[in-house]
Amino acid sequence: MVNKVKVNLKLNGERFSAEIDPRMLLCDFIRDVAGLTGTHIGCMTGNCGACTVLMNGRTVKSCTILAAQANGSDITTIEGLSKGLELNPIQRAFHKRYAVQCGYCTPGMIITAHYLLSLGKTLSRQEIREHISGNLCRCTGYQNIIDAIEELLRDKGLLR
Ligand code: FES
Ligand code: FES
User: Fold this and answer.
1) Which domain holds residue 13?
2) What gap in Å lies between CA 87 and CA 139, rounded to an integer?
3) Which ligand places an atom closest to the C-alpha of 61?
């Protein structure tokens, strides 16, 4: 019998706490305990990026850390980026540019794009490619995803 640990964190702006197995991964905590299934699980080895969330404003692959390590932190998942059914500007750009096929990579990709835009840096198309290289997409060939992010940066005057 494993002793439970209490995890207390901020999840999409709301306080959330639960007693869990100390070996539970953050991705399982988000999906199975908090019920936020927008965060996907692909490889469970830190390679695909499907499980990417923001932890204290920075991207983290949630299959690579324990939920207990996220105690006290501020976590944002894809559900936290939009207001209910209203899409946020990144989701709208992905929709407009056909940057989605099966959609499995999309929540992680959008979280990464959100982080990239939050940096406020001027970037080239090649630099966008490098920034999203931790998020794998098996369907789109990346071109439309990069087009969508490029358009968002252009709108902010941040495209090199
Ligand atoms: S499921 Fe976490 S990186 Fe693939
Ligand atoms: S849209 Fe299918 S994996 Fe990216």
Assistant:
1) 5-80
2) 22
3) 1
